[in-house]
Amino acid sequence: MSEWRGFPPPSRPIRVEGGIRARSRRGRIAQTWWSQRFIEVLESFGMGGRLQRGKNYARAGQVLNLTVSTSVVVGVVQGSRPEPYRVRIGIKAFTAQEWDRIERELAGQALFAAKLLAGEMPADVEEVFDRLGLRLFPGTMRELTMDCSCPDWEIPCKHLAAACYLLAESFDEDPFQILAWRGRGREELLDHLRKLRGTVAAGTSTAAEDT
Q1: Given the DSSP bridges, would you call strands 85-91 and 144-148 parallel, antiparallel or unpaired?
Q2: Which of residues 79 and 140 earns the better pLDDT score?
């Protein structure tokens, strides 16, 4: 007979069909450097045990849906009760003025602009944000707001952790999701970069003609 030490045994989640399943079946979930960076940041906050339980939820397909929009990720996770839990992961979006500075910095560096316009995330893009006094990824828990409708008072609970893992996988599929979370959608960012790069090219051409 197992010893519970005054606590009830862990509850088992209600299995569901059609949930979002993590593609990774074992080991690391995040595959690209940017999604790995996101998970590393979360793990640095001392969430290890809960993240592991969340990983099991993510692989079992307990997350029913997950939506990324400006400054917030919302999802629905099936737990042990009939009513699924609602989770929310919030982060501060950069202001319009901050995005103007970011875009000008990115457009001014041909390699960064070329990679982004090709749909890739430059390996050292975080340095651009750092130079501007900004962080692409959260540096402390205070930069994230998390809540779940479950009765667990600790944050993050396993439902939030499951959402975090699937969020990392969505970053694998589309790195622009990270930037959208921070307030700039893919098409808007690329459109601004094209215009800024055109201005830079025109300025260079004019300067060459004047010499």
Answers
A1: antiparallel
A2: 79
